[in-house]
Design goal:
The complex is a heterodimer of chains A (about 425) and B (about 350).
Chain A: E1 2-9, E2 12-15, E3 20-22, E4 25-28, H1 30-38, E5 43-51, E6 57-66, E7 69-73, E8 92-98, E9 100-106, E10 114-117, E11 132-140, H2 146-166, E12 175-180, H3 184-190, E13 196-203, E14 210-214, E15 217-218, E16 225-227, H4 229-233, E17 237-241, H5 251-255, H6 258-266, E18 272-280, H7 285-301, E19 306-310, H8 316-330, E20 334-341, E21 362-367, E22 371-374, E23 379-382, E24 404-407, E25 423-427
Parallel strand pairs in A: 1-8, 2-4, 6-23, 9-11, 13-18, 13-19, 19-20, 20-21
Antiparallel strand pairs in A: 1-12, 3-4, 5-11, 6-9, 6-10, 7-8, 14-15, 14-17, 16-18, 22-24
Helix pairs in contact in A: 7-8
Chain B: E1 4-11, E2 28-31, H1 36-44, E3 48-56, H2 58-63, H3 65-79, E4 83-86, H4 93-110, E5 114-118, H5 123-128, E6 134-136, H6 144-160, H7 167-170, E7 178-182, H8 187-200, E8 229-234, E9 238-240, E10 256-259, E11 271-273, H9 281-285, H10 293-301, E12 307-314, H11 322-338, E13 343-347
Parallel strand pairs in B: 1-3, 1-4, 4-5, 5-6, 8-12, 8-13
Antiparallel strand pairs in B: 2-3, 9-11, 10-12
Helix pairs in contact in B: 1-6, 3-4
Classes of the chains: A alpha/beta (about 425), B alpha/beta (about 350).
Chain lengths: ~425, ~350
């Protein structure tokens, strides 16, 4: 399967009468965005705002972040959720508005929605402090049940991203990247002397607001399967969860999965990148056992020499991470894990909730319990009302002027456990 | 005059008083540098002085831990030093434990930066590595020449309040404290490079050596359940409405004890969930889903077990540091032992 990904670099967002892209600027018709969101009667209000890198702006509570993309050919974007499911997803031509994002925010669903600061010390930890963000602040209709609200907010973000992506359909990309993975035997034969490497991608699927969707299917309902890496670039996986903000694999991060990007960079040089094994992080022991068995079976079935494994979340999913590691290594495929750490504010406790002796190679994405002082911002998009309750905050952590102290956990994707950031932890 | 003052702790052997036969030497303080301190202060230069040396026999310290610590703390306090040094103890076990104990006490009680040195197999290392900067030394005093530049470098940084970097740069034994930094490459790239090395059979360095977890042996079964006193403990974050103990929704640093005397069930008007790690909707609507008081009262009435303890203990078990969890467990466990509780139902979420 071969995807041509055309990147249109966006250097600003401005409001205009017509939504279009010109000279690297995304012009947005605000009313059309609001109308699109409010077409869902579960949402009673919608405010659209722009946040730029370097501004004294805080966005919170953030639900999801999405890069606008459009399928120029080969299926539709966000298949099974916004677009139609089709076998050509992951192929053809896709255009991406790189450098801008849709950020959904609004009244809190759970405690697990985070903060994006566009400047100040927290900006160093957040990938979305460096992007131009179209913020869509939604308000649920009266008496809306939590899960229904989460779904409505999730769909609103994806709809807006698909709508903005359309503006890039006929724009000539600034850069074109080609990604290709062939059917398994052909791919293996292509670089016979290089080690065959796969990626075991664990999707958050603990349930009760901790869900991810694969072609619209709730990830806790599937069993481990193979996917072409390019499918994910067309939005085959979307986030629908309220995991701790620092750990959140937003829909943006699915589109820009760093392991897939880096495996393609090394493809044909020092590895032969064979593809993605998709699995989940269900809470039932029987699921954990069955699915880690199947992951190990798929690794040996595909003849993989090595895999990278990533997780989403911490605590309970650490058990899935370790089960996968142990079984895959024992089935003869070498493993490197990527994850973040939670050793307490003083950094002295154990970093993970589970371990195994096979986990001898791990790349750290930093420790999320370290604290940081967040200065007051000139403008807040959304509300700071819930800071003390959001994960990473505590009772009394917020000051009257709007500044607060919190653990890095509160920042969206600050210690994301797929290796997207440069943040790491080491022993002192 | 020197700008920075140091107080140095050594044992009777390094003070030249005697060996094993003098190990019961009581704490004494002498002005100036003695024994290893002479070399240390010479290397530090004229800005530093060892104002006093405290000497104590290893056996005396070990057998009179509290008295010796208190006496020495008072001696150190007199001089108000900028840095406190102990040892180095090399591979001397009792001396290592004494150095660790006194360093920890000086740091905690006097808020003075402290440093010691030990050979990595000294039993003092395991006891104090998390709390102290312990310079990694050879196993005998013959290696003092190697230790001096490492130790004096750290002493200077401590006196000036400069940032102390990682163990390999600075030469101390890793404390096991996880500290963030920005790496040159992102995590996925570093992992991939690690994998390529692992596949080639080349050596590689993991970012996180796997820790060894404590395993708790399960208690023996209850002899007679019909007479047993049963308590409920939950990490599910059920608290009285308003969260009077201000327990955090994640990474809890405390637990609460809540009265249930005379209640047949937990009312959603009086109790709620503050847990940040699960969807609380169903626990808020019915807190008995997490603390099953309703079912337990029925069983109690039916005589299925002896009696229910008239309170439950609660905290939030999400992102909670294992050190906090171990502390809660010890505190709650001791309370149950004191109150002769026979069995505990632990409800996780």
């Amino acid at each position: 399967m071969k995807l041509e990904l055309g990147k249109i670099f966006i250097r600003d967002i401005r409001f205009d009468d017509k939504t279009h892209v010109k000279d690297g600027v995304l012009y947005v018709n605000r009313e059309e965005v609001e109308k699109l969101v409010l077409a869902d009667d579960k949402l009673a209000g919608c405010q659209v705002d722009i946040a730029r890198p370097g501004e004294s702006v805080r966005i919170t509570p953030v639900k999801d972040v999405i890069e606008p993309r459009v399928k120029v050919s080969g299926g539709e974007i966000f298949p099974g959720v916004i677009g139609k499911v089709s076998p050509s997803v992951g192929g053809g031509v896709t255009h991406a508005l790189e450098g801008c994002c849709v950020v959904t925010a609004g009244k809190i669903v759970a405690f697990q929605e985070g903060v994006i600061d566009m400047s100040g010390p927290a900006a160093d930890y957040c990938p979305f402090s460096k992007t131009y963000n179209l913020c869509v602040v939604v308000e649920p209709a009266d008496g809306l049940e939590t899960h229904v609200y989460e779904k409505a907010a999730r769909l609103a973000g994806l709809k807006v991203a698909a709508y903005l992506g359309e503006a890039g359909r006929d724009v000539e990309p600034d850069e074109i990247q080609i990604f290709e993975t062939k059917p398994i035997f052909e791919q293996a034969a292509m670089y016979p002397d290089l080690p065959k490497v796969g990626y075991v991608h664990m999707l958050q699927s603990q349930g009760l607001l901790h869900d991810t969707y694969y072609y619209g299917v709730d990830a806790k309902q599937f069993i481990p399967t193979y996917m072409y890496p390019t499918e994910i670039m067309d939005g085959a996986i979307v986030s629908g969860n309220c995991v701790a903000p620092c750990d959140k694999v937003t829909t943006y991060h699915h589109l820009h999965n760093p392991v897939i990007e880096d495996c393609y960079k090394h493809h044909g040089k020092d590895i032969n990148f064979m593809g993605v094994i998709l699995t989940n992080e269900n809470v039932f022991l029987a699921d954990k056992e069955r699915h880690s068995d199947m992951v190990a079976k798929l690794c040996s079935f595909m003849g993989l020499d090595g895999v990278l494994i990533t997780e989403e979340g911490y605590g309970n999913p650490d058990t899935d991470l370790m089960m996968n590691c142990r079984k895959v290594e024992n089935a003869g495929t070498k493993v490197v894990l990527i994850t973040d750490e939670f050793p307490g504010k003083d950094g002295k406790s154990q970093s993970l909730a589970d371990t195994c002796k096979e986990a001898d190679a791990l790349a750290s994405c930093g420790q999320g319990n370290a604290t940081l002082k967040f200065p007051a911002m000139d403008k807040v998009i959304g509300t700071q009302e819930f800071i003390e309750m959001q994960i990473g905050g505590w009772d009394g952590c917020k000051n009257e002027d709007g500044s607060f102290e919190a653990e890095l956990q509160i920042i969206i994707a600050s210690t994301i456990a797929n290796g997207f950031n440069k943040l790491a932890a080491r022993g002192y | 005059m020197a700008q920075y003052k140091i107080v140095h702790y050594i044992n009777q052997f390094f003070a030249g008083i005697g060996g094993e036969e003098k190990a019961d030497h009581m704490p004494e303080v002498r002005e100036g540098a003695i024994g290893p301190g002479v070399g240390i202060v010479a290397a530090l230069g004229s800005e530093f002085e060892i104002a006093a040396t405290v000497i104590c026999g290893d056996n005396y310290f070990g057998e009179n831990l509290e008295t010796a610590t208190n006496t020495i703390i008072d001696m150190v306090k007199e001089y108000a030093p900028d840095v406190f040094i102990a040892g180095p103890a090399f591979n001397a076990g009792r001396y290592g434990v004494a150095c660790g104990t006194i360093c920890k006490a000086v740091e905690e009680r006097l808020q003075i930066p402290v440093i010691t040195g030990m050979y990595e197999e000294n039993p003092g290392v395991d006891m104090f590595r998390k709390d102290l900067i312990i310079v990694n030394t050879p196993n005998s005093a013959a290696g003092m020449r190697k230790v001096i530049p490492v130790m004096t470098g750290l002493i200077k940084k401590m006196a000036l309040g400069e940032e102390i970097m990682g163990p390999s740069e600075e030469g101390y034994i890793e404390r096991g404290i996880r500290v963030n930094y920005f790496a040159e490459k992102r995590g996925s790239e570093r992992a991939l490079e690690m994998l390529v090395k692992k596949l080639k059979g080349e050596s590689f360095e993991t970012d996180l050596p796997m820790p060894t977890f404590d395993r708790v042996e399960p208690a023996a079964p209850i002899q007679d359940i019909k007479k047993a006193k049963i308590a409920v403990v939950t990490s599910g974050g059920i608290v009285p409405t308003g969260n009077p103990d201000h327990i955090e929704s994640s990474n809890a640093t405390k637990w609460g004890k809540y009265d249930i005397t005379g209640m047949d069930r937990l009312s959603p008007d009086d109790f709620t969930s503050i847990h940040g790690g699960y969807d609380r909707q169903f626990a808020i609507a019915n807190p008995n889903n997490v603390v099953p008081l309703d079912a337990l009262r029925e069983l109690e009435k039916a005589g299925e077990f002896g009696e229910l303890v008239n309170y439950f203990c609660s905290t939030t078990g999400t992102g909670t540091a294992t050190a906090s969890a171990a502390k809660f467990g010890s505190e709650i466990g001791q309370m149950f032992i004191d109150e002769h509780v026979d069995g505990v139902i632990l409800v996780s979420t």
